[in-house]
Design goal:
The chain has 182 residues and is of the alpha+beta class. It contains four helices and seven strands; from the N terminus they run H-H-H-H-E-E-E-E-E-E-E. The chain has helices at residues 2-10, 27-38, 45-54, 64-80, and strands at residues 85-90, 104-113, 119-124, 134-144, 147-156, 159-163, 165-168. It has a seven-stranded antiparallel β-sheet, with helices on both faces.
Length: 182
């Protein structure tokens, strides 16, 4: 869904306005299904990355928080050029669950820093398509050996959601078909 949303954004076309799940085999369903498969990367590389990140220790010099900070540096550059970035959100660690599908994909659209240098990353979350109050908050923390990382949490309005880390996902634009009626 995030890749499809970015496709529409890049060509400045309105997203189909429906609250109904598209009928199986309908043009919109086929397009969304293909974009979801595309988001997994060649040979499932994104799924493998989720699995790798789920197994990282959170707060070590080579861990999840450190890698999230490194990823944000790349993401920040793209957001500074007003380019939305698909993100993979790591919701579960391997020690909590083996269910890689519990993780998620969203679209980062911008960010700000507050007076304490904490980040707020604005996101489009396809699970909350009509909301503009979904964000990631992240704070720089020491992770050992003089290294730093980002500890983060997702917010849906005033409700927090555990988020262990995030990374930029590969994206190749696709022009959506003209007729996406159900």
């Amino acid at each position: 869904m995030s890749a499809a949303a970015l496709d529409f954004f890049l060509i400045n076309r309105a997203i189909p306005q429906t609250s109904e799940v598209p009928v199986s085999g309908a043009p919109l369903q086929r397009y969304l299904y293909k974009r979801q498969l595309d988001s997994f990367g060649r040979l499932g590389e994104v799924i493998l990355r989720f699995i790798e990140w789920m197994g990282l220790p959170p707060d070590s010099p080579q861990g999840l928080f450190k890698r999230t900070l490194e990823e944000f540096e790349k993401i920040r550059t793209r957001l500074n050029r007003f380019n939305p970035v698909p993100l993979g959100l790591v919701y579960v660690l391997w020690k909590e669950s083996r269910e890689v599908w519990q993780n998620h994909q969203v679209l980062a659209t911008g960010y700000t820093r507050d007076s304490q240098n904490r980040l707020q990353i604005r996101i489009y979350d396809p699970n909350y398509p009509l909301r503009d109050d979904v964000r990631i908050e992240a704070e720089r923390v020491p992770v050992g050996q003089g290294q730093f990382g980002l500890i983060c949490r997702q917010w849906i309005g005033d409700s927090p959601k555990t988020l262990h880390g995030f990374f930029a996902m590969p994206y190749q634009p696709v022009i959506p078909p003209e007729d996406l009626s159900q």
